[in-house]
Design brief:
Blueprint lengths: L1 H6 L2 H19 L9 H13 L4 H20 L32 H10 L5 H13 L3 H5 L6 E2 L4 E4 L2 E5 L3 E5 L7 E4 L2 H17 L19 H12 L7 H15 L4 H8 L3 H7 L5 H22 L1
Helix pairs in contact: 2-3, 2-4, 3-4, 6-8, 6-10, 10-11, 11-12
Length: 306
């Protein structure tokens, strides 16, 4: 845990601590590390699956256990690492794991969302418009400062990420990938953002783009998730969540074929490899277009020589 606290973000440390306290220590906390067997550890993961815990939740505990015993082996606290004989968790038979691209909205569905926001408070119009336009993460949008917006160029600088943990409260840190990036805004998003700035200034003066109601303090990082859920219920958009708009931005950019992979990855703050892994299904159409382009070129060449 001291190494995690130094090397990782605060929310990662908090996640490790939560998984230790909830799943690992109750099961094997009374045993010496040298006496813990692969069966003990496999039992933790299998027990979570038996309780119906999501695959992602079980995976996180597997990661913590792997890190824990790898560190213990390296420090010579144990002679052998029991996690080497523990199976990586598979989804339950009744659990469907969707590819990230499958969580994305279609272009028509996104258009419907953007039509619906006109009925919402201006702050949330701006938040949803920016989320759809930039593909930024929830915490990155909550961490935006007005100085990050370049009105002249129509660019927004993503250099903050608002997070919350019980131990630390609300705090601003660097983006998840530790890289600052600039993203362009479309005219519609800029117009809504200007209107929101005017309205916000009539209630309070704040450095934060998105604030609590009638307060200069930043919006609580979990607030968008709650709002999106209620928004989805109002407008019949199933499972609506801030990250869905990020999935949508990536998926539509890839399938359109209008931008190269590196530019899309840079815009979202992903590596190219991660982008393609997460959205592999989105590139099927692009691959078909690439293949057809080759066939069209060959056919055109054959016509010229006929």
């Amino acid at each position: 845990m001291p190494k995690i606290a130094v090397d990782c973000a605060e929310n990662t440390r908090a996640s490790y601590q939560t998984n230790l306290d909830k799943w690992i220590i109750p099961a094997v906390g009374d045993l010496k590390m040298k006496d813990i067997t692969p069966a003990d550890l496999q039992g933790i993961l299998d027990g979570m699956k038996a309780q119906g815990k999501a695959h992602g939740t079980v995976q996180k505990v597997h990661v913590v256990l792997s890190s824990l015993f790898k560190t213990a082996k390296k420090a010579k606290v144990i002679q052998t690492n029991p996690m080497l004989d523990v199976d990586k968790p598979d989804p339950r038979p009744d659990e469907v794991i969707k590819n990230e691209a499958e969580l994305a909205l279609s272009a028509g569905e996104l258009s419907y969302v953007l039509d619906c926001i006109s009925k919402e408070p201006l702050k949330w119009q701006a938040f949803i418009a920016l989320a759809a336009d930039t593909g930024a993460r929830r915490g990155e949008l909550c961490g935006l400062l007005w100085k990050d917006v370049d009105w002249k160029s129509g660019m927004v600088r993503i250099e903050g990420n608002l997070q919350y943990t019980k131990a630390k409260g609300v705090y601003r840190t660097i983006p998840k990938t530790k890289k600052v990036r600039e993203v362009d805004l479309g005219p519609d998003a800029l117009t809504i953002l200007r209107a929101w700035r005017t309205e916000q200034s009539e209630k309070c003066i704040s450095q934060w783009v998105f604030t609590q109601e009638n307060s200069p303090e930043p919006m609580f990082p979990q607030s968008p998730t709650r709002y999106f859920r209620k928004f989805g219920e109002r407008y019949d958009i199933p499972n609506f969540h801030p990250h869905i708009l990020r999935h949508t931005s990536a998926s539509l950019a890839l399938t359109s074929g209008a931008a190269d992979i590196k530019s899309i990855a840079d815009r979202l703050g992903h590596s190219e490899a991660v982008l393609l892994k997460k959205y592999a299904h989105s590139t099927d159409e692009s691959r078909r277009r690439a293949g057809q382009a080759v066939r069209d070129a060959a056919r055109d060449a054959a016509k010229k020589h006929a």
